[in-house]
Amino acid sequence: MNIAELQKEVGQFSKEKGFDKNSVEARALFLMTEVGEVAKEVLSLSWEEDKEVVKERLGLELYDVVWNVCELANKLDIDLEKAFVQKSEINRSRTWE
C-alpha cells in the first residue's frame, strides 16, 4: 500500500465511523495523544523484559500516529504523497550540522 492508498483508506474508514466530523483542532489533539503513547512505549523498552511485546504495542501506536496524520491531511485537503515528494527533494539538497 502506498501513501495515497493509505490516505484514501483512512478517509473512507473515517467517514464510515463518523470520525470525519471532528474538527481539525480535535484531530491534531488526537494525534498528539497518540504521539504521547508512542513515547510511553519507547520508554517502556528500557525496563520491560519482553521487548517483542513492547515492539508489538509500539507498532500499534505508530499505526495510530500515521492514521491520525492521514486523517489530518484529509481534513486539510493535503496530498501526503505529493508532500513527501516535495519534502524529499528539499531534504536532498539540505545539509545538517
UniProtKB/TrEMBL annotation:
Entry-linked InterPro entries: MazG-related_YvdC
PANTHER family: NUCLEOTIDE PYROPHOSPHOHYDROLASE, REGULATORY PROTEIN FOR BETA-LACTAMASE
Protein name (database record): Pyrophosphatase
Biological source species: Cytobacillus kochii
Origin organism lineage: Bacteria, Bacillati, Bacillota, Bacilli, Bacillales
